[in-house]
Amino acid sequence: MGKGSCVTLLLFIGLVSSVYSYDLYKDPSQDVEARVQDLLSRMTLAEKVGQMTQIERGVSNNSVVKDLFIGSVLSGGGSVPDAGNTAEAWQDLVDRLQNDALSTRLGIPMIYGIDAVHGHNNVFGATIFPHNVGLGCTRDPDLVKRIGVATALEVRATGIPYVFAPCIATCRDPRWGRCYESYSESTEVVTSLTDIILGLQGEPANKTAGFPFVADSSKVAACAKHFVGDGGTTNGINENNTVIDYKGLVDIHMAPYFDSIAKGVSTVMISYTSWNGMKMHANKFLVTQVLKYNLKFKGFVISDWEGIDRITSPAGANYTFSIESSINAGLDMIMVPNNYPQFINGLTDLVKGGYINMHRIDDAVTRILRVKFAMGLFEKPLADRSYSKHLGSEEHRSLAREAVRKSLVLLKNGKEAGKPLLPLSKTAAKIIVAGSHANDLGRQCGGWTITWQGGNGTTTKGTTILDAIKGAVSPTTQIVYEPYPQPGFAQSQGADFAIVVVGEPPYAETFGDNLNLTIPEAGIPTIQNVCGEVRCLVILVSGRPLVVEPYLPVMDAFVAAWLPGSEGAGVSDVIFGDYDFVGTLARTWFKSVDQLPMNVGDEKYDPLFPFGYGLKMGTPNSSGGSINFMRRWRLLDISCWAVPLIIHMLKL
Ligand code: BGC
Ligand code: BGC
Questions:
Q1: Does any ligand 1 atom lie closer than 6 A to the CB of residue 77?
Q2: C-alpha 271 – ligand 1 centre gap (Å)
Q3: What is the pLDDT of residues 481-493, one digit of tens each?
Q4: Alpha helix ranges (H) inside 505-554
Q5: Which CATH number fits domain 22-114+297-341+350-382: 3.40.50.970, 3.20.20.300, 3.40.50.300, 3.90.950.10?
Q6: 162 lines ligand 1 (CB under 6 A)
């Protein structure tokens, strides 16, 4: 063969092999595990470390996603696109970052994550659902599942495929600033509401045995958080120490993870807290042995925000140690989220130095890729702009309104037996509406709304309770609104009755820790001034039970509305009798803070209102009858579920 023909042959072989080169991992007809292994086998250390790195949107400019093979980007609370807080700006942001990721050698899509903890709460105009503390009172897994479906659609409307929700904490002490993110103090209630995962991700055909499941691109990957014991810290101090034996940890705090995993939850976030003095972010026993092996969780484990930094005190004091101990404990993706060079260099050096072995890295990357393949991210990495219409849709708002109706708990109705105040008359001549929370959308939404801490005023679109009342009463009814009524005001009005709406200001995380739990923001003088002068309904807008016992005698009626979100009309639907109350307490209402912690099933249990309590008005739309809380309470008595739970545990 001449030299020329030899070259031609080589060129021909090259051409044929390039045309027929087959990248198995890109083939959607292949099995997820086969795709993962094929892709993993092609990756360099730098590409693997990149997959394990989650950075904040704010540091994601300048093609860092591309240059460092970043596996995930997040928005922290209130971190919105520079171009504006609109569906289009979000889609553009996510697509820009995704195109960065897709332009890398292997084209592995990044996964964008966000806290959608009561609807798509960072986004202007999204439907804001009640916070979990209210949803717990509905005891309605189907409702919560439908909220999951709606939330997934709104999140997809902004091009985002991943949410850091649900929070499945069992809050055992309302002094904790995150108690409103928890459905209940009862593990059983929390567990039943993990059905939200089925709404967010879709319903696996059968038990997935720990395998991450996301049905299609109308769904999102979910994240059960914060593993484990976040709701059990001493005095409810955020990010603190949960002192409890292993059995207690499992029975009270871990049980909802069994169900979340069985329902196919894709990711689990680690808690800032410690268990008996040991930081969860460095706890190999709980993360690797229990979560990954015993509970057979096959999705990825993500850290909390700067969670590994906080392994040491002060935070970040020995970041190398933080990386080593967290990755070796079994964490797969680290929410760095800002100082990514330090994390990437540190992790790379630890692997090269043999302090973290390749097997561990491969486990982490396998899990991250498994989620990405299982959810179809390789096939549909970009925003589907046809979803924009779902953001804040009428359908979702009416679902949120239903959720508000069902989460309200009636705790008192009338000063004397047989003389209820509720349902209120829609045709009264004159009604006073008073209090700091009556006409304030931001306050009724609470923390994690538009911004991390939430804010007062018209922070997004929705209906305040005052607007809802105005919309509910007859055209001839006169409404007098006064946020901060002084003594004598109510009396001078000659009104038929007053509706007083008071409560807590918005807060999130540590900012919400509170040891006295009194009604703030002039709530107490407002109640006293109004209710001392005219028949009154008090509606409390709060993330938890507060001290109310001293003021209860002066109130004619009392309703806990929790943090209802953007649809205030759910409140007017019920107080004017179009619907009856169905909510029952998912938390014990204490008399005084020195009783805390006090939870259902405790030996010493002397509440103001027990767990499971909730009155009805007996309006035509209700099933009738007054309270039957004893029956419900008995059903939820721990003896009924602790035994099956322990049996379930032993089977693992
Ligand atoms: C919270 C998490 C949240 C994360 C990202 C942390 O401070 O503890 O619940 O998912 O921030 O915003
Ligand atoms: C972010 C939150 C995050 C928190 C952690 C804030 O700056 O906005 O999302 O949870 O920091 O401390």
A1: yes
A2: 9
A3: 999 999 999 999 9
A4: 523-531
A5: 3.20.20.300
A6: no
Residue 92 φ then ψ, to 5°: -65, -45
* Beta-ladder partners of 417: none
Q: From the CA of 40, how far away is ligand 1's center (Å)?
A: 29
The reply to whether the predicted model has a pTM over 0.85 is: yes
Q: Which atom of ligand 1 is nearest to the CA of 75?
A: 12
396-624 fold: Rossmann fold (3.40.50)
Pairing assessment for the beta strands 557-560 and 409-413 based on DSSP bridges? antiparallel
- Provide CB contacts within 8 A for 391, sequence distance 6+: 87, 120, 123, 125, 126, 154, 157, 158
> Please, are residues 435 and 483 in contact by the beta-carbon 8 Å criterion?
yes
304 lines ligand 1 (CB under 6 A): yes
Q: Which residue has the tokens 């009858």?
A: 625
Residue 306: CB within 6 Å of ligand 1?
no
Q: Which sequence spans correspond to the domains of the chain?
A: 22-114+297-341+350-382, 396-624
Strand partners, 54: 72, 335
Distance 316 CA to ligand 1 centre (A): 17
Atom 4 (ligand 1): residue with closest C-alpha?
305
Q: Does 166 sit behind a cis peptide bond, omega within 30 degrees of 0 on the bond before it? A: yes
Cβ < 6 Å from ligand 2: which residues?
76-79, 305, 452
The pick from 163, 167, 269, 305 for probing ligand 2's pocket by mutation, whose C-beta has the most ligand atoms within 8 angstroms, reads 305
> Is the C-beta atom of 316 inside 6 A of ligand 1?
no
Mutate to test the pocket of ligand 1, among 115, 120, 180, 268 (most ligand atoms within 8 A of CB): 115
- Write the residue with the smallest CA distance to atom 5 of ligand 2: 305
CA angle 387, 391, 396 (to 5 degrees): 110
Order of strands, sheet of 497-503, starting from the edge strand that comes earlier in the sequence: 409-413, 557-560, 536-541, 497-503, 430-434, 478-482
- Any idea which ligand is nearest the CA of 182? 1
- 305 close to ligand 1 (CB < 6 Angstrom): yes
Which residue is associated with the tokens 């057979």? 296
What are the catalytic residues?
A: 304, 509
Name which residue leads in pLDDT, 642 or 443: 443
- Of residues 335 and 620, more confidence is placed in 335
Task: Please tell me the number of the ligand nearest to residue 315's CA.
Answer: 2
Is residue 109 within 8 A of residue 88, CB to CB? The reply is no
- 637 — pLDDT class (breaks 50, 70, 90): very low
For 527, what's the count of Cα atoms within 13 Å in the CB-facing half-sphere? 25
Give which of 225, 223, 181, 228 is closest to 201, Cα–Cα. 223
CA distance 255 to 642: 10
Of 449, 522, 516, 435, the C-alpha closest to 481 is 435
Return the SS3 of 541.
strand
Give residue-wise pLDDT tens across range 289-336: 999 999 999 999 999 999 999 999 999 999 999 999 999 999 999 999
User: Residues of the chain with pLDDT > 70: what percent?
Assistant: 92
Q: Are 601 and 638 in contact (CB under 8 A)?
A: yes
Q: Which atom of ligand 2 is nearest to the CA of 76?
A: 9
